[in-house]
Write a structure and sequence with these properties.
Layout (H helix, E strand, L loop, with lengths): L1 H26 L5 H32 L12 H10 L5 H14 L3 H6 L2 H8 L5 H19 L7 H5 L6 H12 L8 H10 L7 H11 L5 H14 L18 H6 L1
Bound molecules: iron/sulfur cluster.
The site of iron/sulfur cluster (SF4) has 14 residues, from helix 10 and helix 13.
Length: 258
């Protein structure tokens, strides 16, 4: 019994320090020493609560979505990066209808850079914003050839340096194609995180930073998929299915409305 209590105490202390280490340097700059200690303690207590809450939510969502992964269809990192660019403001379902014919025409950076832009626009027309998506897919393909020998880079800074590749796209490709740990925040992840109250953020970047601070790093990519799928199928934008939601007991949005 004593051993169990001792182990439980160790785990609790470890959790405190994990949360503390992940948040203090971002949040506590600029405080004087005395105030700093009090604020540190408050953050510690607050974040321990958030940390525990997120752990429980992720456990539930892992049960709801045991095979959570990207629903985009692709055969290699290049096809994935193209599919993710196409998925901006468009459903994965729609993108998956377009990409088979697109990749028949061009499944490498070389072929994509050489394709006629009007032809590309015609193929991707139905996913919206086709002018700018076609332009950036071609520019990105050319950059892959010029700067990376035709290969999609496997790290975030290089991915983010590509034209047309924003932070979300880079995070998805890094995590899905290369097995890296990243939390891509799209409209679903943003909405679900803030409704649940595991983040309190006004922008996707703030949401990403708060999630990274509160979730164990080895769960970042999985967390992205869980929150995204929960948003896509349960916590929908206009009509969230709260009565069917497995995590409603943790949800601030739900609590405020009931
Ligand atoms: S309770 Fe409703 S608002 Fe909250 S996460 Fe579930 S579906 Fe979304």
């Amino acid at each position: 019994m004593q051993c169990i209590l001792f182990a439980a105490a160790l785990i609790t202390v470890r959790d405190f320090f994990v949360v503390f280490r992940q948040t203090e340097k971002h949040l506590l700059r600029g405080f004087n020493n005395k105030l700093l200690k009090r604020v540190q303690l408050l953050f510690l207590l607050y974040n321990k609560t958030v940390y525990d809450k997120i752990k429980k939510i992720l456990k539930k969502l892992a049960e709801d979505f045991p095979n959570a992964k990207s629903e985009l269809k692709y055969n290699n990192p290049f096809e994935l990066i193209v599919a993710v660019i196409l998925s901006a403001q468009c459903t994965d379902e729609r993108v998956n209808k377009i990409t088979p014919s697109l990749f028949k025409l061009a499944d490498t950076p070389q072929k994509m850079a050489a394709i006629d832009i009007e032809q590309l626009e015609e193929v991707i027309f139905s996913c919206g914003f086709y002018h700018s998506k076609a332009k950036y897919i071609k520019l990105m393909s050319q950059e892959l050839i010029d700067r990376f020998g035709g290969k999609v880079p496997d790290n975030l800074p290089d991915l983010m340096s590509l034209k047309g590749v924003g932070r979300k796209t880079a995070n998805v490709v890094f995590a899905v194609a290369f097995g890296g740990q990243a939390i891509a925040v799209d409209t679903h992840v943003f909405r679900v995180s803030n409704r649940l109250g595991i983040t309190h953020a006004k922008t996707v970047l703030e949401t990403e930073k708060q999630l990274m601070a509160a979730v164990d790093q080895n769960l970042w990519s999985k967390s992205h998929h869980y929150l995204l799928l929960h948003g896509r199928y349960v916590c929908k934008s206009a009509k969230p299915k709260c009565s069917q939601c497995s995590v409603k007991s943790f949800c601030e949005y739900y609590a405020n409305r009931n």
